[in-house]
Amino acid sequence: AMIPPSFLYTCLLSSDGSLSGVMQKWKEYQLQCLKYLYEAPPIVAEGKFCNRTFDNYACWPDGLPGTYVNVSCPWYLPWANTVLHGQVYRFCTPEGTWLLKENSTLPWRNLSECEASDQGTETPGTK
């Protein structure tokens, strides 16, 4: 059974009901993501694929084996308006598992396009 979002939201709020602006936005992003993860149709009817997930940074859809998967920079970032066209990337291996960082159990990801640039002086594409 689906947990009502209102119930989830109540659980996510801190005990005194206050959250910083960014944290509040992150919670909203997380909730939207959980809803998506629950409701989105599968990417393939059968066979291997990388599982959709929320890694506490970005909301990842299912991935096709042997492909890069990219999503927009999360909108809860305080500098989101400076990275509107930025993407964060993961790689779905031919085996249908997310590529891991070297010597790690954590998935590899490239979020360089979503990082805050210093005073916005950086030339696009130099990273």
TrEMBL record:
Chain ranges of the G-protein coupled receptors family 2 profile domain: 32-118
Among SMART domains, the record links this protein to:
HormR
**PROSITE patterns from the xrefs?**
G_PROTEIN_RECEP_F2_1, G_PROTEIN_RECEP_F2_3
Q: Which GO terms describe its molecular function?
A: glucagon receptor activity; glucagon-like peptide 1 receptor activity; peptide hormone binding
Top-level taxon in the UniProt lineage: Eukaryota
The answer to keyword Transmembrane helix applying to this record is no
One annotated GO biological process:
positive regulation of blood pressure
Q: Give the UniProt keywords, A-Z.
A: Disulfide bond, Signal
One cellular component term (GO) for this entry is: plasma membrane
Q: Which InterPro entries match?
A: GPCR_2, GPCR_2_extracell_dom_sf, GPCR_2_extracellular_dom, GPCR_2_GLP1/glucagon_rcpt, GPCR_2_secretin-like_CS
Q: What is this protein called?
A: Glucagon like peptide 1 receptor
Q: Which organism is it from?
A: Aquila chrysaetos chrysaetos
Report the gene name. Answer: GLP1R
